[in-house]
Design goal:
With 138 residues, the chain is mainly α. It folds into 2 domains: 7-63, no CATH class; 65-138, AhpD-like (Up-down Bundle), CATH 1.20.1290. The protein is 78% helix and 0% strand.
Length: 138
């Protein structure tokens, strides 16, 4: 009998994904030192979606292929800083410190991300200004 991908996933998860959700939350607590707010909310509202989101997060940040976990957390801090996600910055600073990342390393990641973010905003805005009033015409 033919089954859609959704049906196959539901069959894989079973009728009650609670056991897998609990295991993933436990792993997050151990790996990060805390359970992210997003994980708490998603696991209650949509356990199936949480399972796949959590799996992706754990593999990308906790089992990266080419960089260490510490580097992955520094990258997360830098990305969160660049996009200005206050909650992500807080969480990933704590997660990095849980892994033994120093405050100096975190500071460097924040400063580099801030500089790149600032440069990005200036590059876009100054190009827009130059379209209206080219620098040569002043």
């Amino acid at each position: 009998m033919w089954m859609s991908l959704g049906d196959r996933i539901r069959k894989f998860l079973g009728d009650d994904p609670k056991k897998l959700v609990d295991e993933l939350l436990k792993s997050m607590k151990e790996e990060y030192g805390a359970i992210p707010y997003i994980a708490k909310s998603m696991s209650k509202r949509r356990p199936e979606a949480f399972i796949f989101n959590a799996s992706q997060n754990l593999f990308i940040t906790k089992q990266p292929k080419a960089v260490s976990q510490k580097t992955a957390e520094l990258l997360a801090i830098a990305a969160a800083t660049a996009i200005g996600c206050e909650y992500c910055i807080d969480f990933h600073i704590e997660a990095a410190m849980h892994l033994g990342v120093s405050q100096d390393e975190i500071f460097d990641a924040i400063m580099i991300a801030g500089l790149i973010s600032q440069s990005s905003k200036l590059a876009v805005s100054l190009r827009k200004l130059d379209r209206v009033s080219p620098p040569d015409s002043r």
